[in-house]
Amino acid sequence: MPNAPRVLPRLEAPDPAPRTPADLRRVGIDPDFWYPVAQSAELAPGKTLAKAFAGEPIVLARPERGGVFALEDRCAHRQVPLSAGEVCGDRLKCCYHGWTYDAAGRCVDVPYLDANPNGVRSYPCREAGGLIFVFPGRAERAGEVAFPALPLDPRYKVLTLDYRVNCHYSFMHENLMDMNHQHLHRGLMGKIRAKLLDLRSGEDWVEADYTFERTAGSQNWGERFMLGWRKAPSVERGHDLMTVRTGYPYQTLKFWTAEGDEPALDLWNAYVPVDAAQRVNHQFGLMAVRRPSLPGVIHLLWPVIKRFTAGIFAEDRWIVEREQAAYERQQGDHNQEVFPAILRLREVLRARGVPLADEP
Length: 360
Hints:
Elements: E1 27-28, E2 35-39, E3 47-53, E4 56-62, E5 69-72, E6 86-88, E7 91-93, E8 100-101, E9 107-109, E10 122-123, E11 125-128, E12 131-134, E13 156-165, H1 169-177, H2 186-189, E14 191-202, E15 205-216, H3 221-227, E16 241-247, E17 250-256, E18 265-273, E19 281-290, H4 297-330, H5 340-352, E20 354-355
Antiparallel strand pairs: 1-20, 2-12, 3-4, 4-5, 5-10, 6-7, 7-8, 8-9, 11-12, 13-19, 14-15, 15-16, 16-17, 17-18, 18-19
Helix pairs in contact: 1-5, 3-4
C-alpha cells in the first residue's frame, strides 16, 4: 500500500474499436459474461420469476428439489410468458395449454397430442453470493468465461445492493471511477478532496488509486463504522488508499486505512442492462465490510451502515439519471470530459462493448 503519491505514467490511448460507434451511450454490453439478474431470496421453491437482460425476457424457475434454471420467457406455442406458468417437478408448464419444458428448454409434453415441437432457448444459470446469475451470450462459451470473484470472505459482513437505475450502464462505471464526485456527497460526508495517486490500464481493465483529504465537516457515523475513524494524514501515518477497478464488465472498489493490511471495505458491482436500448440498468452489488474484533458489534452497527449506504447511493442514482436525461434532451453526448481515468475507462468500454441492434 503506497504511503506517498506516485508519478502518473504517460498513457497512450488505445486505438478506438472500429466495430463500435463513437457514442459510448450507444454501445451495448457484451453478453458473453455471467450477469446477476435476481437475488436468490426473490425466488421461492416451486415458483417462477420474470426478469430481463437487454430487452430479452427471461424466466427463472426453482424446482422444489434441484437448482434454478433459466429459459426464454415465452411459450413456443402462443408466445405467452412462461413466468405465468407453474413449476411441476423439475419442469415448467405453460399456463395456457399446458405445454411443458425441461431445464434445457425442450418441449417434453403437449398434453392433448403426441407431438414433439420446438422448444425455447435455455440460459446457463448458477447461484453464488445470494445472487442468481445467467449467461445471456453464446451458451457454449459459458464454461470458458471466468465466473466473477465475489467478496465472500467470512471475516466480512456483506450487504447486497439491488437498485434499478434509469441510465446507460457506462454512466455507472464513470460515476464510481471518478472519485472527484465526492463533492456530490458533501451533505453526508463533509467536504473531501480526492487525489489520484496512480492510474493503470490494460486491454479490458482500468484501475485508479486515490487518497483523500478532508477540507471541511466531519465523518458521518456510517462512514466511521465502515472505514474507521480517519485522522488527517501525516508523514508518520501515511495515506488511506482506495482502488477502483473496472475489469470488464464488472467494477470493484477496495478501501484500506493507512493502518490496515487488508481492506476495510470490499465492493463488487455489476450493472445489468434491462431494456433493448440499454438506457436502464439494474445494479447488483455485494459490499463487504470488515467485522470489528469484538464479536457481534457489526450487527449493532449494521442499520447505521445501511442507512449511510442508501443515502450515498440515492445521490449517485439521482445524478446519473440527470446525466441520462441530458443525453436524451441534447440527443447526444456533449460531455467535456478531461479526467484521465474516465478517458481511459471510456476506451475500454467502447472496445469491449458490442453494437446495439439498431446500429449499422
